[in-house]
């Protein structure tokens, strides 16, 4: 990966986004990190290496003005933009039964997870075009399979997978667009201090993954780096499932 590219990451202050930001900074790139949680942004800035290569921007990805302004500030600050990682999302897939699901909750999932994706692409594309940019969108293995009471989350992530190929066709050849569908990624120790969770997995949790373990933000960061880089220059419009093989393993109740 060539050094000193500029990347914009949404929801970068915790979890998978924080892992991606850490990896890109370690590679020598410059990172603009947005998040709706200002306390988490401050905690992330203290934790990350190379503070001079990091710009933190409070921004709600479901708000068009905030997305447009944070992208403009990124380019004002660093002088260019090479890639966008739209990772922010309402990450809890469970909202209760569909009969009880309020329209307000349904729309909250759609607004953050799916409309946020559209807004990042709409306002980021003009900055990316001159450099042959790359967009990476965070979907989920729940776009492909479900547990009960996850309709809004599943629909939002399925929408991202569809938007990925639509955007790839519209924005190519200048901009490539790909999605990552993580499976179970443990983010308990990648939170702001008052949200940290002890990381404990049972044998049954590990065994449902053919690779023998639950995933980490570093696993998703490794794939993101590749999809942002020129090494993936022949790949666009795809959805990559990174789940330790979980969605390939058949499980029958005993
Ligand atoms: P997380 O909660 O640890 O981090 C998400 C970050 O997004 C938080 O810092 C949060 O403040 C921020 N955020 C939430 N709403 C926002 C908004 N409107 N605007 C800006 N920032 C906002 O979650 P995570 O587990 O790291 O999930 C990151 C992404 O990966 C999400 O899109 C999630 O759906 C997806 N994902 C996660 C997993 C998993 O197992 N962790 C699996 C599949 C997909």
From TrEMBL:
**Keyword terms of this UniProt record:** Oxidoreductase
Q: Which Gene3D superfamilies match?
A: NAD(P)-binding Rossmann-like Domain
User: Could you list the residue ranges that cross the membrane?
Assistant: none
Query: Pfam families of this UniProt entry?
Result: adh_short_C2 (PF13561)
Family membership, please give it: Belongs to the short-chain dehydrogenases/reductases (SDR) family.
The protein here is known as Oxidoreductase
UniProt source species: Vreelandella lutescens
């Amino acid at each position: 990966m060539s050094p000193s590219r500029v990347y914009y990451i949404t929801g970068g202050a915790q979890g998978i986004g924080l892992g991606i930001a850490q990896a890109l900074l370690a590679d020598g790139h410059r990172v603009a990190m947005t998040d709706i949680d200002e306390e988490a942004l401050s905690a992330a800035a203290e934790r990350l290496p190379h503070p001079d290569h990091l710009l933190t921007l409070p921004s709600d990805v479901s708000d068009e003005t905030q997305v447009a302004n944070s992208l403009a500030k990124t380019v004002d600050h660093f002088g260019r933009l090479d890639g966008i990682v739209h990772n922010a999302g309402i990450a809890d897939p469970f909202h209760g039964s569909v009969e009880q699901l309020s329209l307000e909750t349904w729309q909250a999932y759609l607004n953050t997870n799916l409309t946020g994706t559209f807004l990042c692409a709409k306002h980021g594309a003009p900055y990316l075009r001159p450099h042959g940019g790359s967009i990476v969108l965070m979907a989920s293995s729940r776009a492909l399979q479900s547990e009960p009471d996850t309709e809004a989350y599943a629909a939002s992530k399925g929408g991202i997978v569809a938007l990925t190929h639509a955007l790839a066709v519209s924005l190519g050849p200048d901009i490539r667009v790909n999605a990552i569908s993580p499976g179970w990624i443990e983010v308990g120790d990648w939170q702001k201090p008052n949200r940290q969770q002890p990381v404990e997995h049972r044998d049954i949790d590990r065994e449902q993954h053919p690779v023998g373990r639950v995933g980490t933000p570093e696993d998703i960061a490794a794939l993101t780096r590749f999809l942002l880089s020129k090494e993936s220059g022949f790949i666009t419009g795809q959805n990559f499932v990174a789940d330790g093989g979980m969605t390939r393993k058949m499980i029958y109740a005993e």
